[in-house]
TrEMBL record:
DNA-binding region boundaries: 2-100
Residue span(s) of domain OmpR/PhoB-type: 2-100
Origin species: Paraglaciecola arctica BSs20135
InterPro entries per record: OmpR/PhoB-type_DNA-bd (IPR001867), Sig_transdc_resp-reg_C-effctor (IPR016032), WH-like_DNA-bd_sf (IPR036388)
Gene Ontology terms for molecular function: DNA binding
Name of protein: Transcriptional activator of cad operon
Alphabetical UniProt keywords: DNA-binding, Membrane, Transmembrane, Transmembrane helix
Domain of life per record: Bacteria
GO annotation terms (biological process): phosphorelay signal transduction system; regulation of DNA-templated transcription
PROSITE patterns in UniProt: OMPR_PHOB
TM stretches of this protein: 180-201
Pfam families: Trans_reg_C
Keyword Transmembrane helix: yes
Length: 359
């Protein structure tokens, strides 16, 4: 059986010149294998280009390109059969290194150092692994790790099987349960905090929207009171001048007598129309948007749905009836339309805000 060198996820067979990994195996040319063995021997240390030339191409006149080619082919081989070729690093102006090589059952690279014997790498049975007399491996300095090993001629040096990497201890079942309980408690606290914050935000948002709605209700009501005063003035002016009595609904009455109005009456008519197109339209559309954008208002106040229908009908009538007609100065939506204004809702909202100290 040929000796194997394990490096990371790779298994290297110097005798047959192959590198095997999770994705298969690939053949490496002898000189390229020699370069790989020199780097493996360094055990993570940087090896200079001069040292590689000295050990692999001893007493041979070659260009630096041979090293570039060898490194490129080694990287390609590692990437073809393994997860990454990044183990082989180029250190600018210094050389090359194999980053954190994980070596087990490394062939006796330093064997027979004292006897100045360097026939190449052999397996435990003493058979030739890689025949390359020019590969001068004995000249490498003996490291502290080598001293802990027991070098034997033509034998396999085994590294300490204990990994040099830190290994996290496996937690006991009791520790795992405790960790799980603490994790669950932390998640519960976070979720509970989020729920409390969300509930508080909902309450604050409800208060803000009701305050805004209450403000628009007051604006709409005050505008209606002013408009009603001008309306009564205009009715009195028309009936007195024409010696008639009003028997029709206000909208129809003003539309009927609009062509007969004098300049003074037309002026009051324009004032009434301006209130409709101004503050009343603004307040009613704002209240409608507030209800549309905040469904929780309907959940808190059942009459809010009645107000929504009233406002939606008013806005629709404003755009489709009032604006196209110049003989209308006011716009009413009420019982006769099936959507009366819920005046009781105004009292409910006022009480709700006062109970919370917001008014």
């Amino acid at each position: 059986m040929p000796s194997m060198i394990t490096f990371a996820e790779y298994r290297i067979n110097p005798q047959v010149g192959t590198v095997a990994g999770p994705d298969g195996n690939v053949h490496i040319e002898p000189k390229n294998m020699d370069v790989l063995l020199v780097l493996l021997q360094a055990k993570g240390e940087v090896v200079s280009r001069e040292e590689i030339l000295r050990q692999v191409w001893t007493n041979q006149e070659v260009s630096d390109d041979v090293i570039n080619t060898a490194i490129s082919k080694i990287r390609k081989a590692l990437s073809e059969v393994g997860n990454s070729s990044q183990y082989l690093q180029t250190v600018p102006r210094k050389g090359y290194q194999l980053v954190y090589p994980q070596l087990t059952n490394v062939t006796a690279i330093h064997a027979n150092r004292q006897n100045n014997f360097e026939p190449g790498l052999k397996n435990q049975e003493g058979s030739q692994i890689h025949s390359n007399p020019s590969l001068n491996l004995k000249r490498q300095p003996i490291t502290e790790e080598d001293e802990l090993l027991t070098p034997q001629p033509l034998s396999i040096i085994k590294l300490n099987e204990k990994s040099t990497e830190d290994v996290s201890p496996i937690p006991s079942p009791k520790s795992a349960r405790k960790h799980l309980l603490w994790s669950g408690f932390a998640i519960f606290v976070v979720v509970a905090g989020l729920l409390i914050a969300y509930t508080k935000w909902q309450q604050q948002n409800l208060e803000n929207q009701l305050l805004a709605l209450h403000k628009q209700q007051k604006l709409s009501y005050s505008s209606f009171v002013i408009q009603a005063k001008r309306r009564n003035e205009l009715v009195a002016m028309i009936t007195r001048r024409l010696s008639i009595e009003r028997t029709q609904q206000f909208e129809k009455f003003f539309a009927k007598y609009y062509p007969l109005m004098n300049k003074e009456e037309q002026f009051v008519f324009a004032q009434i129309r301006g209130i409709t197109t101004g503050t009343l339209f603004s307040a009613n559309t704002t209240m409608l948007k507030l209800i549309d954008n905040n469904p929780q208002l309907m959940s808190e106040f059942p009459l809010m749905d009645v107000l929504h229908k009233h406002l939606a009908f008013w806005v629709s009538k404003y755009h489709n009836v009032f604006i196209p007609r110049s003989d209308m100065c006011l716009l009413y939506v009420g019982v006769e339309d099936g959507v009366p204004y819920p005046s009781e809702l105004d009292k409910q909202i006022t009480k709700w805000l006062r109970d919370r100290g917001l008014l």
